[in-house]
Amino acid sequence: QSSGNSVNLLFRLSLALSGTSWGFLLLLYFYVQMARAAVVGALYLLLRYFGYGLDFKEAIIIVWSGLRGAVSLSLALSVKRASDTAQPFLKPEVGTMFVFFTGGIVFLTLILNGSTTQFLLHALGMDNLSVTKLRMSNYARHEILNKTLEAFGDLKDDEELGPADWVTVKKYITGLSNL
């Protein structure tokens, strides 16, 4: 049922929107990126000198990665739902445009920004862990493995799971397969 409603909404959106709407969506995407840059730029000195100590590379990543808009998409859907009821101040076309532009921004940021963040991290030299972070990561992996082994041993003593073929189970647990 929900899938049918989504397909119906997308079909109605594509019929209701003209080619200029797609151009406005791209322009809006550009403005959203500029707004993110303006906000981070305006607050950069505060973010740099108070709290965490944000540097310029991190500020670039904040601008580029940003939030993807789950809350804004749910709000746009509620506007669409409200516009579908008979109201003098909110026409159905407005709700359709809200969903189109909000969904379009979410889609573009997911596809464009999300898929290129890794490359931007690499270009900025931020994809390598420091020695301290690498040591912390290895320690965390070690502790997780120890807890997994402990839980694995406890399961062998379980009344219901004890008779299982534990050699086969161990083979399918990737963290344990090479022990």
The beta-strand count equals: 0
Please state the CA-atom Rg, rounded to the nearest Å: 25 Å
Q: Bin the helical content.
A: over 70%
Distance between the terminal alpha carbons, to the nearest Å? Answer: 47 Å
Broad shape: flat
Biggest pleated-sheet summary: none
Question: Into which percentage range does the β-strand content fall?
Answer: under 5%
How many domain modules? 2
Q: Could you give the order of the helices and strands?
A: HHHHHHH
- Poorly predicted tracts of residues: none
Count of alpha and pi helical runs: 7
State the secondary-structure class.
mainly alpha
Q: Mean of residue pLDDT?
A: 82
What does this structure look like?
The longest helix has 32 residues, at 92-123. α2 (19-49) packs antiparallel against α3 (56-65), α2 packs across α5 and α4 (70-84) packs antiparallel against α5 (92-123). The protein has 2 domains: 2-128, no CATH class; 133-172. The chain has 179 residues and is an all-alpha fold. The chain contains 7 helices and no strands. The two termini are 47 Å apart. The mean pLDDT is 82. It is flat, with a radius of gyration of 25 Å.
Task: List the keywords.
single chain, 179 residues, mainly alpha, 2 domains, transport, potassium:proton antiporter activity
What's the layout of helices and strands?
Elements lengths: L1 H15 L2 H31 L6 H10 L4 H15 L7 H32 L7 H26 L9 H7 L7
In short:
The protein has helices spanning 2-16, 19-49, 56-65, 70-84, 92-123, 131-156, 166-172. The protein has 179 residues and is mainly α.
